[in-house]
Design a protein that fits this description.
Low-confidence stretches: none
Order of helices and strands: HH
Number of strands: 0
Helix content: over 70%
Oligomer: single chain
Number of helices: 2
Largest sheet: none
Shape: elongated
Radius of gyration: 44 Å
Mean pLDDT: 87
Distance between the termini: 119 Å
Length: about 110
Amino acid sequence: MNAPDNNETELDRRERELREREHAIRLRELEAEINGTAPMYETSKHEASESKFKQWRRKLTIAAQFTGIVIAVGVAVKLSSWLATAVIVGGLSWVIFKIVFDKDSPKY
């Protein structure tokens, strides 16, 4: 009966030693981290912000560019649809002319 108790106490002792070593290692890591050099951050001089007029002017320019692009795309789509309609109507008219009114085609 002494053997199981002895093994159990031995395991408890080893676990306690392991925890103490881990704790000591962690404390040393924290001390090294605290005593280490602080990270240096690159700094830059503060630049004054733009005036309200310049900000509004820039925003207005961006809005005007966007509006111009939207209008140009709309016009391009409208022109392409008119051109497609003209091509389709012209093609159908030519086919109908060839079928109905062309004198060179044989009559069946």
